[in-house]
Amino acid sequence: MKLLLLITAIFEGMVGIGFFVTPVLAVSILLSTQLESAGGIFAARLCGAAILTLAICCWKARSFETRESAIGVVTAMLFYNLAASAVLVYGGLRLSLQSPFIWPAIVGHAALGVWCSTLLWFSIRNERRSQA
């Protein structure tokens, strides 16, 4: 669980900082499109702040004393990774965003979602075994 949280903290931290500090550049690189309005720049910065917040939560949760303490963060990250995959698929297929990074990001988020769900499944299974 610590490795998942560490990897997530590092990668999401980089993306969050990019969107928060230089949203025009980050969107251009990651999505191969331009931000053309103040509202778009504002929304990208807000998303950057949210992603950076997730990275901070993951960074802090990796050092929790017990495995059970991190389960809430991993559950939230499961939702985030599945939602991010779905939104990126929508952008790639329906909005024709043609970035060389969009499909690797989809695969990455889907893989992290599978990793999260696997860890949660094992945690639930181990909890049930210890109660029996």
Plain-language structure description:
The structure is a single chain. The protein has 132 residues and is mostly helical. Helices cover 80% and strands 0% of the residues.
Anisotropy-based shape: elongated
Which stretches are low in confidence, meaning pLDDT under 50 for 5 or more residues running? none
Total strands: the figure is: 0
Q: Give the end-to-end Cα distance, rounded to a whole number of Å.
A: 24 Å
Strand content: under 5%
The count of domains is 1
Give a quick account of the main beta sheet: strands, pairing sense, barrel closure: none
- What's the order of the H and E elements? HHHHH
Rg, please? 16 Å
Helices, by number, come to 5
Q: What share of the residues lie within helices?
A: over 70%
Overall mean pLDDT? 93
Key features?
single chain; elongated; 132 residues; mainly alpha
Ordered list of secondary-structure elements with their pairings:
Layout: H1 2-21, H2 23-31, H3 38-61, H4 71-93, H5 102-131
